[in-house]
Amino acid sequence: MQVPLPPSLQTLLEVLQRLPGIGPRSALRIAQAILKKPDLLHRMIEVLYDVQQQIRTCSSCGFWTEGEGLCAICSDPNRTEAALCVVKDASDVLAIEKSQAFRGHYHVLGGVLDPLSGVGEKDLRFTQLWERVRTGAYEEVILALGTSPEAETTAYYIARQLADWHGRVTRFASGIPVGSDLEYVDPLTLSRSLRERQPLSI
Ligand SMILES: [Zn+2]
Fold this sequence. Notes:
The protein has 202 residues and is α/β, with parallel strands linked by helices. It has a domain at 74-199: 3-Layer(aba) Sandwich (Dna Topoisomerase Vi A Subunit, Chain: A, domain 2), CATH 3.40.1360. It has helices spanning 7-16, 24-36, 38-54, 90-99, 126-135, 149-161, 187-195; strands spanning 55-57, 64-66, 83-87, 105-108, 140-144, 168-171, 198-199. A 5-stranded mixed sheet has the order 4-3-5-6-7. The protein has a two-stranded antiparallel sheet with strand order 1-2. Helix 1 (7-16) packs across helix 2 (24-36). It is elongated and about 65 Å long. Zinc ion is lined by residues 58, 60-61, 63, 70-71, 73-74.
């Protein structure tokens, strides 16, 4: 027989389970840990509020930033403008930065095309991407969207849209396991995959 939980605790468990990788057992463990540490609970409330108030996406690249102006990467004068690396999520920027193999600019799409889940062109940052590519001084667009079927579709969609652009469209070389996200790929593999990138022909 299942013991009914207090409603507020039940709600907490439900909310926690909406997070990636958190199932019923993990949710219960997290809730128990929070309830045992009132200081931690207060700190979490403060931190979550701060994140909600402060964090926004950079108007140029879509990476996380705070306050006015561009993000730390876009406003770094030491980064070369020659290449623009298109990634799915902000966490992919961190994965590529960790590999130390890229010093250009990024463009965070916010996902990949996935019609079955209702994600279409209008839900992603494509308009900003076309604008940046056509008005910037970039010579190359590097697609680093992962290897899922949806990522493949998105890569070819971008390559088709940029077919008449003067620059090169390339993608990460093989080495990234099929179906995996960049954040799970080790920095060495990522850096090799970036160094040996291939032109994407449509
Ligand atoms: Zn930026």
